[in-house]
Write a structure and sequence with these properties.
The chain is mainly beta. It has one domain: SH3 type barrels. The chain has one helix and five strands, in the order E-E-E-E-H-E. The chain has a five-stranded antiparallel β-sheet. Bound molecules: zinc ion.
Length: 65
């Protein structure tokens, strides 16, 4: 089975497999690159995270409207 390829863009909402401690699994993408900046939809906490970790842990990606 082929791995699903996601096209990540600023403003998209990515759902990760593991929830943030606040309970939300959804993150808004604020910056893309070798590292992503993500903002937790649940609590607003921001993180920097390596792109490969995001790719490995993505469950869903909602494109911005
Ligand atoms: Zn959170």
């Amino acid at each position: 089975m082929m791995k699903k390829e996601y096209q990540y863009e600023v403003g998209d909402i990515v759902t990760l497999k593991k929830p943030h401690p606040c309970g939300s699994k959804e993150w808004e993408i604020l910056r893309v690159g070798a590292d992503f900046r993500l903002k937790c939809i649940g609590c607003g906490h921001q993180i920097m995270i390596a792109r490969k970790i995001v790719e490995k842990n993505t469950k869903d990606l909602k494109k911005k409207a």
